[in-house]
Structure to design on (273 residues):
């Protein structure tokens, strides 16, 4: 009786090597943002900190806010705190405050076409709940169906309570002096100011301006041009802020928080005309 032996595929080892090489290439090509998200998921699964699963009724949310507020300490509070202290208190991606990172990432992914984004406020109680979660050091994860206005209001709450503003006290004072100047003079002034503000303020400003640029790129759908955004968010500095948003391609390096809605300057100008 003849016994038939199966012959090994001579290319199988090579294929496995190629597969491993391909996998390594994919890992290297991941963006810093995606790597942070993966790291955060791993850490959050092992973390003993409270999650954002809660009774969504009005009574349940109010009770949760009360319980969380009792757990807030000077070591955990990040809303209304100095930017450098915020970054020291909580691990954050790309030196971006965690609430800002979470809000921009969520809005960039789900709500850039939301009509009235940043103009229509969100649910105050839900905003207060998210604030309490961040301030108590709890893990925060927004539900996919969370309202755009609520997340936008949460972001604005952090920005408006930041001591010294996004540009720092010195940078903010110099920025206010740009009002009333010609556009080219304002642009030159912005570039000069950004060279002297602290690194953490520069990074925060960069991420916010790129995000607002992505929002305004969809203004034909969401009705939020750079003028509308600047007026809603920075009413006393709307002129210079508008230029900073429109010219972010020229002023800033690439953002840490990416968006598929980012387009080239020519398309951006056409959308906002």
């Amino acid at each position: 009786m003849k016994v038939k032996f199966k012959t090994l595929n001579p290319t199988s080892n090579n294929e496995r090597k190629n597969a491993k090489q391909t996998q390594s290439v994919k890992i290297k090509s991941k963006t810093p943002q995606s790597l942070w998200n993966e790291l955060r998921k791993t850490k959050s699964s092992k973390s003993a900190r409270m999650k954002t699963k809660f009774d969504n009724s009005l009574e349940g949310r109010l009770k949760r806010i009360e319980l969380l507020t009792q757990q807030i300490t000077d070591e955990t509070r990040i809303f209304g705190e100095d930017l450098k202290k915020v970054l020291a208190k909580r691990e954050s991606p790309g030196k971006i405050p965690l609430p800002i990172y979470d809000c921009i990432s969520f809005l960039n992914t789900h709500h850039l076409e939301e009509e009235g984004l940043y103009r229509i406020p969100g649910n105050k109680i839900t905003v207060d709940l998210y604030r309490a979660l961040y301030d108590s050091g709890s893990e925060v994860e927004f539900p996919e169906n969370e309202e755009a206005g609520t997340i936008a209001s949460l972001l604005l709450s952090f920005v408006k309570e930041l001591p010294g503003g996004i540009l720092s006290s010195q940078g903010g004072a110099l920025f206010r002096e740009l009002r009333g100047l010609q556009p080219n003079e304002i642009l030159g002034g912005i570039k000069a100011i950004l060279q002297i503000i602290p690194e953490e303020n520069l990074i925060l400003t960069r991420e916010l301006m790129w995000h607002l640029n992505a929002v305004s790129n969809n203004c034909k759908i969401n009705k939020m041009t750079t003028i509308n955004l600047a007026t809603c968010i920075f009413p006393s500095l709307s002129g210079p802020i508008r230029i900073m948003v429109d010219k972010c391609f020229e002023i800033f390096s690439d953002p840490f928080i990416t968006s598929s809605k980012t387009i080239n300057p020519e398309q951006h100008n056409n959308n906002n005309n």
Notes: The chain has 15 helices and no strands. The two ends are 85 Å apart (CA to CA). Residues 13 and 19 are 10 Å apart (CA to CA). The mean pLDDT is 83.
